[in-house]
Sequence to fold (193 residues):
Amino acid sequence: MDMEEVNENKTFSFNNYWPSVAIVGAIFSLVSFVIGLYFGYQQINSEPSGSFISPVMISSGVICLATAFAGLLAVWHYTKEVSPVMKLGQGALVGFLTGAAIVLFSTILNELWLLIDPEYTEKLIEATIANVEAMDLPSDARNDMVDAMAESMQGQSFFKQLFVGIPVPGLLNMGTAMIGVKLFAQKEDDISF
Fold:
């Protein structure tokens, strides 16, 4: 390996990140979409139990945990396919963009699913409200919860889902991507000539 080849590997372009971000983001968005769909239909098809822990609440935690490691995998993919050298800040950027890609792709999949089952959101809202109504709470608190849930679920446009959804996965994946940099990336000093 001559000096020019090593210098070519050290030049970074923002475009070099996109394949890793898109591939890992698409895979994890598909996983999160399927998990959300599974738990959504579990909620729709279950009897209202009145429990605070419902399939929809469980799905939020499961999806969060499942997608939290996308940043780490995006860094791994980048260091294997593009360049073994990556700085911590670059890893953070890859992680945040991967989290944003997950939200973008899964929101698109959710919108496409509404073409297949147009009543899905309405059925999910009704099932969630039925579960809240079965809770042993004072009627004022129960009515407030029902109103807040109905308002938050019905008023979700595509752009609102993106705006609200990107920060949490973005920040989680930023953290795991920085861990990925420490695990998988080489420092510039470590490259031998």
Notes: Confidence is low (pLDDT under 50) at residues 1-8.
